[in-house]
Write a structure and sequence with these properties.
Number of strands: 16
CATH architecture: 4-Layer Sandwich
CATH superfamily: Ribonuclease Z/Hydroxyacylglutathione hydrolase-like
Radius of gyration: 20 Å
Number of domains: 1
Oligomer: single chain
CATH topology: Metallo-beta-lactamase, Chain A
Largest sheet: 7 strands, mixed
Shape: globular
Structural class: alpha/beta
CATH class: Alpha Beta
Strand order of the largest sheet: 8-7-6-5-4-3-16
Strand content: 15-25%
Length: 361
């Protein structure tokens, strides 16, 4: 008995030490309201106190029944990889699945939240599995110049994928990340990163002048272990470049709940030519509402940020929530109709589909 008590005491001490080691925010700035000494917070809601709700949700999932899923409904298509590898001037987006997409602008190849593993999990044998196959493998893409990582959840920040990108022929891409994720990358041996706070930006050389990459606030949270909740920042991204002699702007929500942040973004940037908006993984609403949007809220984001053309992501790949992975196929058309948004203004691509957004003469 004495040995068991000693073992429990040692375990408790170890857990406390782990928690203590992650409790200091090295980027803390008391002048910024979203900063805390031990991490970060949202602009319009406090997201530090909902852990009991998570376990209530898990109990409901275990004791109840999930809606029936039919992942075969998720459309797929063959990607023209030769075009993507040769393209230097057109602005394109290729949806690879979930929140992973290839953006091409100014001759740069940009990946958003790259996830090429079979599971969105720290374990290769357990956790949410890929319900629809990848359209191609990571190594089939053109060399990636920039990686945008919105936050550190496993369906958005996948260790094997970022390690493979860091080893790509021609040298690693630049990983542009929210504050704190740069430190995690460094622990994995990945040094080529740049950390941004909300409203910060960097400029990168591109074919037609500099590309500006901004990190913008969205409503979410972060964690990769039971002890590091909100220790690192999260956000969405704005990319600004030029095509055919005029400015061109792109926006990615990352993961988000609906909030006034999107009106703020729309006011600050004046609208976007293209937006990549999260649209799936939103049930049960009593738990997911603060962190994920449904189709109606996704259309409202499209309107708030004044987007001229949007696609929906964060669906069709991993069943992380209670809604089926194909749910937006039914929900988005209804939401568009309710808000008077034309079908070609906010669409769902097939996995592997490329949309040419603007052509360089």
């Amino acid at each position: 008995m004495r040995h068991r008590h000693a073992w429990i005491a040692a375990l408790a001490s170890t857990l406390w030490l782990i928690a203590s080691c992650t409790s200091v925010n090295p980027y803390y700035d008391p002048s910024k309201p979203h900063h805390r000494p031990d991490g970060f917070n949202n602009n319009y809601v406090d997201n530090w106190g909902d852990r009991p709700s998570f376990w209530r949700w898990q109990w409901q999932r275990w004791t109840g029944e999930l809606p029936v899923q039919d992942a075969s409904r998720v459309p797929r298509t063959r990607t023209d990889l030769d075009y993507l590898r040769a393209n230097r001037g057109d602005v394109t987006v290729t949806w690879i699945g979930h929140s992973t997409a290839l953006w091409q602008i100014g001759g740069l190849n940009i990946l958003t939240d790259p996830q090429f593993s079979d599971r969105a999990s720290p374990l290769s044998f357990f956790g949410p599995k890929r319900e629809v196959p990848l359209p191609f493998q990571l190594e089939e893409l053109p060399r990636i110049d920039v990686v945008l990582i919105s936050h550190n959840h496993y369906d958005h920040l996948d260790l094997p994928t970022v390690q493979a990108l860091a080893r790509q022929p021609g040298g690693p891409p630049l990983f542009v990340v929210p504050l704190g994720i740069d430190l995690w990358l460094r622990e994995q041996g990945i040094e080529h990163s740049r950390a941004l706070d909300w409203w910060d930006h960097i400029e990168l050389p591109a074919r037609n002048g500099a590309i500006a990459v901004h990190l913008v606030p969205v409503q979410h949270w972060t964690s990769r272990t039971p002890w590091d909740r909100n220790r690192v920042l999260w956000g969405g991204f704005v990319v600004q470049g030029r095509v055919a002699g005029r400015p061109y702007s792109m926006f990615f929500t990352g993961d988000t709940g609906y909030s006034k942040d999107f009106q703020d973004i729309g006011s600050r940037f004046g609208g976007f030519d293209f937006s990549q908006i999260a649209v799936g993984c939103y049930l049960p609403r009593w738990f997911m509402k603060m962190q994920h949007v449904d189709e109606d809220e996704a259309v409202r984001i499209h309107q708030d940020v004044k987007s001229r053309h949007s696609i929906g992501v964060h669906w069709g790949t991993f069943r992380l929530c209670d809604d089926p992975v194909e749910a937006p196929l039914d929900g988005l058309p209804k939401a568009r109709a309710q808000h008077g948004v034309p079908a070609d203004e906010f669409e769902l691509l097939a996995i592997g589909q490329t949309r040419i957004l603007a052509r360089e003469p």
